[in-house]
TrEMBL record:
This is Peptide chain release factor 3. InterPro entries: EF-G-like_DII, EFG_III/V, G_TR_CS, P-loop_NTPase, PrfC, RF3_C, RF3_dom_3_sf, RF3_GTP-bd. It comes from Pseudoduganella namucuonensis. GO terms for molecular function: GTP binding; GTPase activity; guanosine tetraphosphate binding; translation release factor activity, codon nonspecific; translation release factor activity, codon specific. Belongs to the TRAFAC class translation factor GTPase superfamily. Classic translation factor GTPase family. PrfC subfamily. It comes from the Bacteria. One of its GO terms (biological process) is regulation of translational termination.
């Protein structure tokens, strides 16, 4: 890690030229923003912690987990998370490695919170896919990879848990290629596994990295032996080396050589083998992210593509989270910077509201604490205090009217009607649901006719979180009941009259979501199809973008 080099320190560059295009370009170039995608239990939390250890952001293993459980203990609604041992909340960690600024966006692994994960993935430039090598490709991996593919996000793959009995590595690659439809370029190759795990062979560097178990210190280094034909290796592991040479020959013949362009296009993934819990292979992953993963690139907005090195600041909100810090009882809007330089206290324009806001108490997310942001560049995530006026997908700029596109909402698959035990609390209920709807914790639909609100979710656990938060944060004891609704579609049309007629004719099943978009709540697949046929001038959408 070379953070001692004064050339690279931010203070120095500021003194040298201030807000110059050159400074912005340099800061953008050294940023890497990525998320980890994995099926629960593959080792995401463990790997996150090791990445932070390597970067020096934390000193001790166990910190990430401890932090998580610390949050459980102090935050009521997180009880659910604790009970189920899953991670509801995502967070952001920024750290330095080899003079690069790395932003790691954490994602909830449980599929019931996948909506949140999908949106987090719109804010990353690359993704790290963690696979349990004993299990191979699992359900959640497939879904998340599909989301990455929407934007051709480059993927680095880590095959984890080689210290256990795993599946045959060639078979694993084959599965990745056939199930995930992504080319694999092995970069390291395992030598043995389980009790006989000896290390990995680096195919590009022709080096062998020897495995040693159970180390948890930050700057642990593993012994490196140069050259696959090194006689020392033959002496040490005669059996494994014969096997390795055979496999390497196979791999070289059968798999794709690593190709940076293909990786950047999202077509090919470099594959690393290792063991997160033993710190083994983690440095290689970090190096791959620094050396190969893309710095922030241009982002699509209405009107035009915004380049990260443009001087004016722009960004969009991809996530809103409540109770980040129970001591504050606050909500924070997570904004990804897309261009320019953000400075504390600067005035930015909230483009949906057409209003200028002065953002002074902005936080960044260092691995160990929240800190005030002095400045931020494309790829960085900053947290804006949200007093109920920000929604997911909101864009900010220094004045230019544009909206970043591609932040999805997915049509919910599960529905509940809300009733409250105490009718005097109706106002609080509406306020709570409005806010939770804006946060994306649940989708809230208000039917045009008939009083009761309908909640929609992508996973049923979302309802439990909402019920618990309504109780704890708004003092509302809500009862969720089943409904006859089976699917929802957002409705749009250029023909305004058709929309009006549609609403008048089907008022019980036409509803508006928290952002004011019209939706059709269908009672069955047949009902949806018939309605679509009867209203040919309307379009029915299974996803909507924030606009
Ligand atoms: P997550 O659900 O993806 O965040 O997974 P965790 O990081 O919580 O890991 C799930 C389980 O796998 C935990 O019991 C870890 O200790 C274990 N685990 C993680 N990495 C390794 C590894 O490299 N080897 C072995 N044997 N176990 C691991």
């Amino acid at each position: 890690i070379d953070s001692s080099n004064p050339e690279n320190s931010v203070e120095n560059s500021e003194a040298a030229g201030g807000k110059t295009p050159a400074l912005i370009a340099r800061e953008v170039k050294r940023r890497r923003t990525f998320g980890i995608i994995s099926h629960p239990d593959a080792g995401k939390t463990t790997l996150t912690e090791k990445l932070l250890l390597f970067s020096g952001a934390i000193q001790m293993a166990g910190t990430v987990k401890a932090r998580k459980s610390g949050r459980h203990a102090t935050s009521d609604w997180m009880e659910i998370e604790k009970q189920r041992g899953i991670s509801v909340a995502s967070s952001v960690m920024q750290f330095e490695f080899r003079d690069h600024i790395i932003n790691l966006l954490d994602t909830p692994g449980h599929q019931d919170f996948s909506e949140d994960t999908y949106r987090v993935l719109t804010a990353v430039d690359s993704a790290l896919m963690v696979i349990d090598a004993a299990k191979g490709v699992e359900a959640q991996t497939i879904k998340l990879l599909d989301v990455c593919r929407m934007r051709n996000t480059p993927i680095v793959t880590f095959m984890n848990k080689l210290d256990r009995e795993c599946r045959d590595p060639l078979e694993l690659l084959d599965e990745l290629e056939s199930v995930l439809k992504i080319q694999c370029a092995p970069v390291t190759w395992p030598i043995g596994m389980g009790k006989n795990f000896r290390g990995v062979y680096h195919l590009l560097r022709d080096e062998i990295l020897l495995f040693r178990a159970g180390e948890e210190s930050a700057d642990q280094s593993f012994e490196v032996i140069k050259g696959i034909d090194n006689p020392r290796l033959q002496e040490m592991f005669p059996l494994e080396m014969d096997q390795l040479r055979m496999e390497v020959e196979l791999v070289n013949g059968a798999s794709h050589p690593f190709d940076l362009e293909e990786f950047l296009a999202g077509v090919q993934t470099p594959v690393f083998f290792g063991s997160a819990i033993n710190n083994f292979g983690v440095r290689e992953i970090l190096s791959a992210l620094v050396d190969w993963a893309p710095a922030p690139r241009g982002r699509d907005a209405t009107v035009r593509v915004v380049e990260p090195t443009e001087q004016p600041f722009t960004g969009f909100v991809f996530k809103i989270q409540a109770n980040m810090d129970p001591a504050h009882r606050d909500r924070i809007a997570f904004l990804r910077v897309c261009s320019g330089r953000f400075e504390r206290g600067m005035k930015v324009k909230h483009l949906r509201l057409g209003r200028e806001v002065k953002v002074s108490s902005v936080v960044t997310f260092m691995a160990s604490s929240r800190e005030q942001v002095e400045e931020a560049y494309a790829g960085d995530i900053i947290g804006l205090p949200n007093h109920g006026n920000m929604q997911i997908g909101d864009s900010f700029s220094e004045g230019e009217a544009l909206t970043f596109t591609g932040i999805p909402y997915f049509a919910p698959d599960f529905f509940r009607q809300v009733r409250i035990r105490n009718p005097l609390k109706i106002k609080q209920l509406h306020k709570g649901l409005q806010q939770l709807g804006e946060e994306g914790a649940v989708q809230v639909f208000k039917p045009v006719q008939g009083g009761e609100l309908v909640l929609g979710a992508v996973g049923v656990l979302q309802f439990e979180v909402v019920a618990s938060r309504l109780m704890n944060e708004y003092g509302v004891d809500a009862v969720f009941e089943g409904t006859s609704i089976s699917s929802a579609r957002w409705v749009s049309s250029d023909d305004k009259k058709s929309l009006v007629d549609f609403e008048a004719a089907l008022g019980h099943n036409v509803a508006y979501d928290a952002a004011g978009n019209m939706a059709y709540l269908a009672t069955s697949g047949v009902n949806l199809r018939l309605t679509q046929e009867r209203w040919p001038k309307l379009q029915f959408h299974a996803t909507r973008e924030h606009a």
